[in-house]
Amino acid sequence: MSSLAGCRPEVIVVGAGAAGAAAAFHLARLGRDVLVLDSATFPRTKPCGGGMAASVQRWFPFDLRPAVDTVIERVRFSWALGDPVLAELPGEAPFWIVRRSRLDAYLIEQAQGVGARLACGMAVEGLETTPGGWSVQVREPGGARLALQAQAVVLADGSGSRLAAPLGLGPRQPRFAATVSVELEGPVLDPAAARFDFGLVRHGFCWAFPRQGGYSIGLGSFVGRDGLEENAVLAELLPSLGFSADAGVRTRGRLRLWNGHYPLHGAGLVVAGDAASLCDPFLAEGLRPALLSGCEAAAAVDRWLGGEPEALAAYSAVMRRVWGDSMAWGRRIAQVFYRVPRVGYQLGIKRPTAPRRIAQILSGELGYGDIAQRVIRRLLLQRS
Ligand SMILES: Cc1cc2nc3c(=O)[nH]c(=O)nc-3n(C[C@H](O)[C@H](O)[C@H](O)COP(=O)(O)OP(=O)(O)OC[C@H]3O[C@@H](n4cnc5c(N)ncnc54)[C@H](O)[C@@H]3O)c2cc1C
User: Fold this and answer.
1) Per-residue pLDDT tens for 223-278?
2) Residue 152 covered by a domain
3) Would the CB of 49 count as within 6 Å of ligand 1?
4) 181 C-alpha vs ligand 1 centroid, how far in Å?
5) Per the domain annotation, does 322 fall within a domain?
6) Residues 6+ apart with CB under 8 A from 194
7) Taking Cα atoms as reference points, which of 266, 311, 20, 318 lies closest to residue 154?
8) Is residue 92 over pLDDT 70?
9) Which end of the chain is more exposed for a tag (fewer CB within 10 A), N or C?
């Protein structure tokens, strides 16, 4: 018999990634009985550059630095590996590189430390409403099926979520960036510099983030359905970092992007992180909104369980205000920038103020709305 048979938590969190672990931590800390289900076994790897503004620390009462691999001090932008700009990041807005295997395991350990339970190898296949809340259908590691009951559910099952759209959460037809990630082991040119190149990838960019003993390389294409042509891009990028053109293991993926304002809640149900289509459509930043939405989702579900019927609608509203409104401008910038990237690089990225503005966007100090009108006007004027 399953070890979970008869288990009836107040909240089931589906997915123990950044969003799910953040939600589980805060719910358990507020005294809620929480069960986290993940189809993977932890610690698990996850294709991700792991770049994250240190400002996320403010959402957690424990120190996140044990999960930090590298502290970035400067950024190097380039166009097809030439025409570089090197900029020191403002000291007050540091940027961290984390390994996802370490960060996600660390976050879920913190959640377990305040009482959340984690069940690994548990693939959630469906959800149904019941008079008391939700019945969550789970396939266990051996293949057996199990139905678990809870009053509330937090969906945080990532970019590949099949659960959110049928429940009316987030966009019915999500939009995806095509991605490739490569982990490289070997010497690093500048261990405190993150590199971004805007000229090698069509309708997107590639990045090289230094970490202990190597690089996390990523390619992302954000507009249209063009292939990434990763082998051609990597054949230029990797030798520029001192690696052979075919080095590293390549993992292709799809990253669900922010694509409009949609409800992120239902009755006793909220969606967070990539499953909620929160990822920045211009810079592919997904960790910060995953953590933020996990924290906000936990506060909302706690209030809802405490008898505030409007608390879950307030979650959708707060995510729109603190994240979606900025992403609406980010999407417009992306649509213009990635169609004329060479102009965008010259007029946007190479400006003396650009690195500071990007650091301020990534730390949450500024939203895209604060800079958008000026940026779009500059790009459109140049095009006409
Ligand atoms: C190549 C690449 C590079 C990136 N680089 C960066 C970066 O540098 N900085 C940044 O901010 N963002 C980056 N991102 C985006 C970032 O990785 C995501 O936005 C982030 O992982 C979202 O976290 P999450 O918790 O929503 O989802 P995830 O971290 O994907 O967690 C979802 C969890 O749900 C589990 N799950 C899935 N389905 C089920 C199911 N049916 N039942 C049970 N469990 C399930 C999965 O096993 C997983 O553990 C990158 C993405 C890609 C693809």
Assistant:
1) 766 668 899 999 999 999 999 999 998 999 999 999 999 999 999 999 999 999 99
2) yes
3) yes
4) 13
5) yes
6) 51, 72, 74, 75, 76, 95, 97, 207, 208, 209, 210
7) 20
8) no
9) C
What is the reported pLDDT for 226? 62
Q: Is 309 helix (H, G, I), strand (E, B) or coil?
A: coil
Ligand 1, atom 38: nearest CA belongs to which residue? Answer: 157
Find out whether the beta carbon of 38 lies less than 6 Å from any atom of ligand 1. Answer: yes
* CATH, residue 312: 3.50.50.60
- The secondary structure of 74-107 as a DSSP string is EEEEEETTEEEEEEEPPTTS-EEEE-HHHHHHHH
Mean pLDDT, range 156-180, rounded to an integer? 92
Range of the domain at 141: 11-48+100-172+259-328
Asked if residue 294 has its Cβ within 6 Å of ligand 1, the reply is: no
DSSP one-letter code for 276: G
| Interval 293-332: pLDDT, tens | 999 999 999 999 999 999 999 999 999 999 999 999 999 9
Task: Provide CB contacts within 8 A for 118, sequence distance 6+.
Answer: 16, 24, 36, 38, 42, 108, 111, 112
Which ligand 1 atom minimizes the distance to the CA of 273?
26
39 pocket-lining for ligand 1 (C-beta < 6 Å)? yes
Kindly state if the Cβ of 181 falls inside 6 Å of ligand 1: yes
Nearest to 279 by CA among 287, 269, 268, 291: 287
Choose which residue among 48, 75, 127, 257 to substitute to test ligand 1 binding: the one with the highest number of ligand atoms within 8 A of its C-beta. 48
Helix ranges (DSSP H) in the chain: 18-29, 100-113, 230-240, 287-305, 311-319, 325-337, 341-344, 354-363, 368-383
Q: Which residue has the tokens 């953590």?
A: 291
CA of 290 from ligand 1 middle (Å) equals: 8
Does residue 63 sit within a domain?
no
Whole-number pLDDT of residue 65: 95
